[in-house]
Write a structure and sequence with these properties.
alpha/beta; 7-stranded mixed sheet; 6 helices; 30% helix; globular
Length: 171
């Protein structure tokens, strides 16, 4: 059922990423100048779309419903995918061979099948100090989720883990 919803473009667990998290993602894992940006699970309401189209790529592609079944020409992907479909999205990102920056629950780091996927590429993980307070569809900030989230770059230049306190020392 979940796979069919993903293929048909139906969305589940719709939560928006706060703009400060989008900016952190872009600061830690920025696109290169001139990169064609893809945001497959985002609409014009998304903070990804608002920031990317204004500051990075005015022609960025977003609002698509067939990312899992269609091939898109892009250089850099950034999104907060539906967590219920994270494994399929991770696999698709690895297949693309392009840098893909995702917000994922911390448990996305574990699991036999995921480790098989991760062994095919470099994974860079940024671990924020605090849990991300996602925004509901009606614009309300909800309390932090029960699980911690991480920011992951799939097809990264190198495999690494970066903790928030390290980023502050680097920049």
């Amino acid at each position: 059922m979940i796979k069919q919803a993903l293929i048909s473009g139906a969305k589940s667990d719709e939560w928006y990423t706060p703009v400060e998290v989008v900016r952190t993602m872009l600061d830690v894992y920025p696109p290169k100048n001139g990169d064609r940006v893809l945001m497959p699970f985002d609409t014009d309401k998304s903070n990804f779309v608002k920031v990317i189209t204004k500051e990075y790529d005015g022609n960025a592609v977003y609002g698509i419903t067939d990312f899992m079944t269609n091939i898109y020409d892009f250089d850099y992907l950034i999104t907060n995918p539906p967590y219920s479909n994270k494994d399929e999205v991770i696999a698709r990102c690895i297949e693309s061979g392009k840098p893909c920056v995702l917000v994922l629950p911390i448990d996305a780091l574990g699991g036999v099948q995921r480790h098989k996927l991760y062994s095919k590429t470099n994974i860079s993980v940024y671990v924020p100090t605090k849990r991300i307070k996602f925004i509901s569809e009606n614009g309300e900030h909800k309390k932090s989720p029960a699980n911690h989230s991480v920011i992951m770059m799939i097809n990264a230049p190198k495999t690494e883990i970066i903790f928030e306190y390290q980023k502050e020392k680097i920049t």
